[in-house]
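Students often ask why inverse folding is considered easier than folding. One informal answer: many sequences map to the same fold, so there is more than one right answer. In these notes we will look at a single instance of the problem. The structure comes first.
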């Protein structure tokens, strides 16, 4: 798609709609664009969106599979085409959505492994390991991810004025820029009050200012990638699995609350899930853990 044909124009208009009307993240827009351009390359120069049929989309997915694309990536490519054709139909550019007639590849149900309550308490109740570059900040990271159930992107997006210290809540910007208020637990509040003076000391030394809560030792804002590295290195140093990442702590938040008897809809609100079905995965997770305990301990299970 070197020249701006009608084919490419529709894609550009759709991506602009994602940004302006749906508040999609840049990561999502980039993923949709990549998938749509792959389909355009597959369909060739004579592509006419009005003539695309479901058989052609199936052929496209088959080619991607033949090239070694994983099932989750195939499902995302199909979701991109479905969303694009749904928009095209709404705008009157096509009569129907051919991608709606294509079945989503069946994905294996992978439940995330989460640390136990004992493991999390052991990590948070002890001194951070020596590899923690900025201990006060790194403890605040763990307390906010696990204590508040935040996404990594939500955590790095927190600004200083997002805290309501009087009523002990944080304003969090979730997916689609939707905001929610999350309670700030005692442990997280203690960690933050220990971190904030250290944060200001670093900014004074490097002669910088920042409104972002989390900064590095040079005074710059932390990225999601940096948070991922910090979480993994500290978790591994404390004997947890090497596949621990920030979202693992969010899963642990939901799972442990459910195990302690929290209402599923309350957990949904705290996590900012749009659908209850997403939160219900924690029910599956708890059931899987119960089954494992049974298999490992009950004499008749052996």
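Output (designed amino acids):
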């Amino acid at each position: 798609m070197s020249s701006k044909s009608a084919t490419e124009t529709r894609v550009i208009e759709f991506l602009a709609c994602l940004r302006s009307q749906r508040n999609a993240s840049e990561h999502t827009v980039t993923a949709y664009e990549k998938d749509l351009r792959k389909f355009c390359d597959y369909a060739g120069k004579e592509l006419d969106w009005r003539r695309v049929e479901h058989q052609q989309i199936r052929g496209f997915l088959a080619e991607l599979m033949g090239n070694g694309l994983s099932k989750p990536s195939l499902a995302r490519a199909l979701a991109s085409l479905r969303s694009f054709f749904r928009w095209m139909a709404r705008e009157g550019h096509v009569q129907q959505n051919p991608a709606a007639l294509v079945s989503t590849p069946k994905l294996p149900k992978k439940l995330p492994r989460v640390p136990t309550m004992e493991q999390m308490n052991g990590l948070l109740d002890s001194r951070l390991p020596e590899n923690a570059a900025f201990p006060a900040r790194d403890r605040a990271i763990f307390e906010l991810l696990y204590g508040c159930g935040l996404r990594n992107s939500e955590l790095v997006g927190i600004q200083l004025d997002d805290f309501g210290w009087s009523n002990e809540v944080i304003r969090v910007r979730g997916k689609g820029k939707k905001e929610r208020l999350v309670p700030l637990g005692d442990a997280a509040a203690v960690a933050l009050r220990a971190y904030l003076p250290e944060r200001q000391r670093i900014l004074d030394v490097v002669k910088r200012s920042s409104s972002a809560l989390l900064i590095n030792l040079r005074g710059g804002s932390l990225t999601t990638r940096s948070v991922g590295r910090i979480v993994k290195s500290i978790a591994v140093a404390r004997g947890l699995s090497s596949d621990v990442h920030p979202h693992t702590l969010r899963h642990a938040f939901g799972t442990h609350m459910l195990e302690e008897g929290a209402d599923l809809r309350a957990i949904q609100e705290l996590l900012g899930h749009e659908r209850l079905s997403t939160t219900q995965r924690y029910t599956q997770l708890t059931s899987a853990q119960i089954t494992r305990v049974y298999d490992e301990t009950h004499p008749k299970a052996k």
